[in-house]
Amino acid sequence: MPVNRLLPHLLLLCGAAWLTGCSTTHNKAPVEERQPIRQAARTPLPAPVATTPPVAAPAETAKPLPGVENAGKPGYYTVKAGDTMIRIGLDQGQNWRDIVRWNAIENPNLIEVGQVLRVLPPQSDAAALASQGVAPPRVDSKPLDGKLAAAAPGAAGTSAPVAVAAPASAAQADDEPAWAWPSAGTVLANFEEGKQKGLAIAGKAGDPVLAAADGRVVYAGSGLRGYGNLVIVKHNNTYLTAYAHNQALLVKEDQAVRRGQKIAEMGSSDAERVQLHFEIRRQGRPVDPARLLPAR
């Protein structure tokens, strides 16, 4: 093609190319804006310290029960659940007040299971006690104190002769007591080892209950469960007698009594019927009264 014709075409192509370049928009690559990372402030670790194993707090030492060092020794008794000083005295053949004194007990109502009590006089043992004797003290009779009769549960307002102890003699023997029946009633139940600790004797409410032998009252009250109004008489270092279920008590503790003396009135306290429950205990152990009482 002639140059004069080609030139206009070239100019047109160049102008088109220039216009196209100017109108073209160059897109920038997307840029993600990131916030500058802030590092959390770090607490500096303490310098390592040498440690020792933790020391355990000393265990609190339990206070030992009184008398435990004597557990199992002759002449000592370990308290069991349900025991009272009155029951311990009856089972050991002792005046419960003596046991309280021998053990320096401040409150006889506060004894603990596992506590060990001296049940023989100080400076004595079972063999020595068996060889010692205690004779019943001489007694004189006088009317019962009216205040005592009025205070006795179910007691009548009348006075009854009672014995007043004279000073105990230094010469005392532990002979077999001269026994007598404590009541004139018939026997309802006989002694049975491990079940029936004594005799159940029939009678009417108010019938006389008599001391079975000379001795001294070591308990008169209603503090022994199952016995009701109870009298316990100590005859010597070997024998005690117990008279239970009375309606009235006519003697008081530490009072000397004679065989055949009226000490209570028959009743039904803590029992299903009127009766006298009578026990003889040899060194605290129940024995059959029928073997010791005279034949009727």
Description:
By secondary structure, the chain is of the alpha+beta class. It has two domains: 68-131, Roll (Membrane-bound Lytic Murein Transglycosylase D, Chain A), CATH 3.10.350.10; 139-291, Glucose Permease (Domain IIA) (Distorted Sandwich). It is 16% helix and 23% strand. It has helices at residues 3-23, 85-92, 96-102, 126-131, 146-151, and strands spanning 76-78, 116-118, 139-143, 161-165, 187-189, 199-202, 208-210, 215-221, 229-234, 239-249, 256-257, 262-266, 275-282, 285-287. Strands 5, 6, 7, 8, 9, 10, 11, 12, 13 and 14 form a ten-stranded antiparallel beta sheet that branches. Strands 1-2 form a two-stranded antiparallel sheet. Strands 3-4 form a two-stranded antiparallel ribbon. Strand 13 and strand 14 form a beta hairpin. The protein is elongated and about 175 Å long. Mean pLDDT is 77; it is low at 22-26 and 130-173.
Which properties best describe this structure?
Glucose Permease (Domain IIA); 14 strands; 5 helices; ten-stranded antiparallel sheet; 2 domains; 23% strand; Membrane-bound Lytic Murein Transglycosylase D, Chain A
What's the topology here?
Elements: H1 3-23, E1 76-78, H2 85-92, H3 96-102, E2 116-118, H4 126-131, E3 139-143, H5 146-151, E4 161-165, E5 187-189, E6 199-202, E7 208-210, E8 215-221, E9 229-234, E10 239-249, E11 256-257, E12 262-266, E13 275-282, E14 285-287
Antiparallel strand pairs: 1-2, 3-4, 5-6, 6-13, 7-12, 8-9, 8-11, 9-10, 10-12, 10-13, 13-14
